[in-house]
Amino acid sequence: MKKSTSDSLNRIISHAILIVLGVAFIIPLLWMISTSLKTLRQLFVYPPQWIPHPAVWRTYIDVFSYAPFHLFFLNTLIIEVACLVGSLLSCTLVAYGFSRFRVRGRNALFLLMLSTMMLPYQVWMIPLYILFTKLHWVDTFLPLTIPSFFGVPLYIFLLRQFFMTLPSELEDAAKVDGCSYFRIYRQIVLPLTKPALATVSIFTFMGVWNDFLGPLLYLSDPTKYTLAVGLQVFLTQHGADWGLLMAASTLVILPVIIVFFFTQKQFIQGIIMTGIKG
Fold first, then answer.
1. What CATH number was assigned to the domain covering residues 62-273?
2. Over the stretch 127-147, which tens digit does the pLDDT of each residue have?
3. Phi, psi angles (nearest 5°) of residue 208
4. What is the Cα–Cα distance from 31 to 178, expressed in whole angstroms?
5. How far is the C-alpha of 71 from the C-alpha of 226, rounded, in Å?
6. Which of 129, 139, 141, 176 has its CA 20 to 30 A from that of 262?
């Protein structure tokens, strides 16, 4: 009885802490949305007014007349799709090789691959820029998409850990039936890896969507800007108009919230299952 009471108390305390933290994180988002719907007079009212009256929905339409956000969205979407395809294709193949092929030096190669995660982007930013300049890729989407087809160490690590949790008996049975390694990978392994693939997809989506340094470094044509760079340009031009700025920020962050809201179950499941086996 005492143990049950103690467990209930711990559960209540844990939920209370999580609720407080959740409210602390959601308040800035609610304030941003509220500010985007306010008139100029309502912005500087004291005490602050949370619910705007009247709500100015016109602000979200005016944003597109001040900046081509539809074009920024299309550019970001093109880069998103290319990076998703590249990451899933390359990382799954490399991770499958690390988890299943018993070759000499496999662990050393895996550690070497992981060691590249210790190098910050700023270290190899200039060499990469010089390389892409020699290839005449600057001011195109290629520097932002092609590297994803060569694998991402973090995603390879997550997928390898997940592949190692799959029973090898399934593959042994497929080999007896004459399946090749690629057919086993395509028809047996990938269908069982949906939680890990969902996790990698969400990480890739959020990373590309919020990437500011890459597009800023390689893109100079305003018609090729992504949402992150376009929002910064919008800030420099219309930073004094808080309603427009908050409306633009809401439009940029809304897709990320929607994606995470509908995929949080797969995301959490993938993160948990990739850490089961080392």
1. 1.10.3720.10
2. 999 999 999 999 999 999 999
3. -70, -40
4. 60
5. 8
6. 141
